[in-house]
Design a protein that fits this description.
The protein has about 450 residues and is mainly α. It contains 18 helices and 6 strands. A 3-stranded antiparallel sheet has the order 1-2-3. Strands 4-5-6 form a 3-stranded antiparallel sheet. The chain binds s-citryldethia Coenzyme A.
């Protein structure tokens, strides 16, 4: 039965009326596959002579993307349409990497080829080890990561041409494969232990634990529960729409900077305690609270406008419901502590009591502040043996694939152009120079 050809949707528009001039302007409205519609204001300045004003981009879609979707009100996170809950339970990190990069889950052959490719890119150039000697042993590992990842561009001249799809692909594979190795080297350097080469017979997460915690003087036994937990933590952190560090990578990439430089800029942005640095800050906060009896004091401080203290690991620009990743992280936390025979972790006790009190507090309810991905991750990572300052490094190891996938999507966007926001200028208007002897 022939169905009438679907009629193209009438172009939806919104009308802007400038009350100062009475002029009316129509702007097209665009629909995504799901989520809020957008007003296409690309012609706004040309037609009205005005800019929009949205510091922090609370109401701005900076790009079109098909990689990750978040419904903040419902606490939903999808990677290429697959829910984070299903992926965390049924998939593995390298399969999720393939999904984020290529848009589909791999078949058997694609998966084994991809795993083989990444595995064989895990070694870094032997000369990279000399970089570490230039840093103090007590450097913050994120400072070392920014420097060494950016320096990859000095080694891999054969994958800097962003207009060559093959070079883009190799650069992406190198970043996903080598950043865990660099992270482990960074940790080993900080504790004065020998560097451990990657092993091709281990999975991504097993290899990372091996390079981080093994020593040449004795065999290292991989704990499968901990390896599975690490793999799941990597999945949970892999991508998250247009967050601050991903937007940084996109903006750096829009100038056509090479991928290694772009990912280094993402690492720099992730470092901030309002973003990826929060997992380190959560642990510092829990240690500062020190005892459940002090929780009310810190809740009070978090609510005090005159106090810069915020409850680290709480709140989110997009999630106004429970961060789905936090729930999975909390379950993983109990699994890891049980596996390690840690019956009662005082920090976990404080975290769970803090969560309970905060979620019943009017302030947090009204402002829709829930635990985010960073609230429990630090407890797990500390239990596994990572020092606090390595927590954000692990976030960067996982998020590299998201940054690469978003960077790739931007570069392959036919209408891609350099990102160059404007401003509302409130500084001095033009004035004449005053000679030194004439100034007050
Ligand atoms: C990540 O964007 C992403 O997707 C990031 C991320 C990812 O995967 O890439 O999810 C990873 O960065 C998670 C967030 C980690 N950061 C923290 O846990 C740090 C603590 N959280 C806050 O700094 C804050 O919640 C942000 C930065 C996460 C979000 O800040 P917003 O969206 O700019 O919200 P806001 O600062 O405007 O807060 C809204 C209100 C404010 O009160 P009012 O000015 O309206 O009176 O809520 C208050 C804030 O003061 N508030 C908090 C709070 N977070 C927000 N009050 C106390 N404690 C908090 N944690």
């Amino acid at each position: 039965m022939s169905e009438a050809a679907p009629q193209p949707k009438a172009q939806q528009t919104v009308t802007l009326i400038d009350n100062a001039t009475g002029k009316k302007y129509d702007f097209p409205v665009m629909n995504g596959s799901v989520g809020p519609r957008v007003i296409d204001i690309r012609k706004l300045y040309a037609e009205t002579g005005m800019f929009t004003y949205d510091p922090g981009f609370t109401s701005t879609a900076a790009c079109e993307s098909a990689v990750t979707y978040i419904d903040g009100d419902k606490g939903i996170l999808l990677y290429r349409g697959y829910s984070i809950k299903e992926l965390a339970e049924k998939s593995d990190f390298l399969e999720v990497c393939f999904l984020l990069l290529h848009g589909e889950l791999p078949n058997g052959q694609q998966k084994s080829e991809f795993v083989n490719t990444i595995t064989r890119h895990t070694m870094v150039h032997e000369q990279m080890q000399f970089f570490f000697r230039g840093f103090r042993r007590d450097s913050h590992p994120m400072a070392v990561m920014v420097g060494t990842v950016g320096a990859l561009a000095a080694f891999y001249h054969d994958s800097l041409d962003i207009d060559d799809p093959k070079q883009r692909e190799i650069a992406g594979h190198r970043l996903i494969a080598k950043i865990p190795t660099i992270a482990a080297l960074t940790y080993k350097y900080s504790i004065g232990q020998p560097f451990i080469y990657p092993r091709n017979d281990l999975s991504f997460a097993e290899n990372f634990l091996y390079m981080t915690f093994s020593v040449p003087s004795e065999p290292y036994k991989i704990n499968p529960i901990l390896a599975r937990a690490m793999d799941r933590i990597f999945i949970l952190h892999a991508d998250h729409e247009q967050n601050a560090s991903t937007s940084t990578v996109r903006l750096a990439g829009s100038s056509r900077a090479n991928p290694f430089a772009c990912i280094a800029s993402g690492i720099a942005s992730l470092w901030g305690p309002a973003h990826g640095g929060a997992n380190e800050a959560v642990l510092a906060m829990l240690e500062e609270i020190g005892d459940k009896s002090r929780i009310p004091e810190f809740i009070k401080r978090a609510k005090d406008k005159n106090d810069t203290f915020r409850l680290m690991g709480f709140g989110h620009r997009v999630y106004k419901n429970y961060d789905p990743r936090a729930e999975i992280m909390r379950r993983t936390c109990h699994e890891v502590l049980a596996e390690l025979g840690i019956k009662n972790d005082p920090l976990l006790d404080i975290a769970m009591e803090l969560e309970k009190i905060a979620l019943q507090d009017e302030y947090f309810i009204e402002k829709k502040l829930y635990p985010n991905v960073d609230f429990y991750s630090g407890i797990i990572l500390k239990a596994i043996g990572f020092p606090t300052e390595m927590f954000t490094v692990l976030f960067a190891v996982a998020r590299t694939v998201g940054w690469v996938a978003q960077w790739k999507e931007m570069i392959e966007e036919p209408t891609q152009k350099i990102g160059r926001p404007r401003q509302l200028y409130t500084g001095a208007t033009e004035r004449a120079y005053v000679a030194l002897d004439k100034r007050k």
